[in-house]
Amino acid sequence: MENQDFTDGPINRDENIGTSTLTKSFLSNVFTYMSAALAITGIVAYWFGTDMSLLSLMFSAEGGMNLFGYFVLFAPLGLVLLMSARFHKFSSTTLIALFILFSVLMGMSLSSIFAIYTGSSIASTFFITSATFTAMAILGYTTKTDLTKFGSILMMGVIGIIIASVVNMFLDSGMMELIISIAGVLIFTGLTAYDVQKLKRIGSGVEYGTDETNKLAIMGALSLYLDFINIFLFLLRFTGDRK
């Protein structure tokens, strides 16, 4: 998922700091925020997923999701929309607080994977995702090819996946689910390279040490976080070993 709104407006570069150094500093902050958010999500997911008393808070005795479970499921989407829409109004402190809340809720919503898949397949899928994400991030940072033209195509692919997933909720086709999962991995892998290149471009023109720059780093971390999580989940759907 992209956050187009957070790149709006003029961005000024501090003349006392080299462009390369500024870019590396900005991207370092982006990946620090992203890594911290993923760590929070992972810890919460494992905590809830391995404790049936906590997992039962989101599911009824019959096994279906209860009202609180649906809140946990859809609240992260609401937070992403809120952060994107109010980016220019919120301070960086507020955005960090919302990002932490988002990470916790995502961990709770993902906790059910520990009841569905084996721990070893979750771990192996995570490492495969990490390697894939790292490779594409390096590609996005180092490539001389302008990936901007691919952004709209990839976003159309995301919309297509969402529509196909909704349709498959009614069809319940295993083959269609496999196709959606493979397409999802490819699309979000591409988005990783695209987003890193976009953030590199943003980082080369920000003003050093300002609240606005910190806000851009947080929103960039959110974009990369979503890329990582989606690659992981789509990979898990067709490579994970079910219990």
What can you see in these coordinates?
With 243 residues, the chain is an all-alpha fold. It has one domain. 76% of the residues lie in helices and 0% in strands. The protein has helices at residues 19-49, 52-55, 67-85, 92-110, 113-116, 119-142, 148-171, 174-203, 211-239. Helix 6 (119-142) packs across helix 9 (211-239) and helix 8 runs antiparallel to helix 9 (211-239).
Output the keywords.
single chain, 243 residues, mainly alpha, globular, disordered N terminus
Oligomer: single chain
Major sheet, described briefly?
none
The low-confidence runs, each spanning 5 or more residues with pLDDT under 50, are 1-5, 7-17
Calculate the terminal CA-CA distance, rounded to whole Å: 30 Å
| Annotation, overall tally of beta strands | 0
Helix content: over 70%
Shape: globular
The structural class is mainly alpha
- Element string (H = helix, E = strand): HHHHHHHHH
How large is the radius of gyration?
19 Å
How many distinct domains?
Answer: 1
Averaged pLDDT, please?
90
SS strand fraction = under 5%
Q: What is the count of helical runs? A: 9
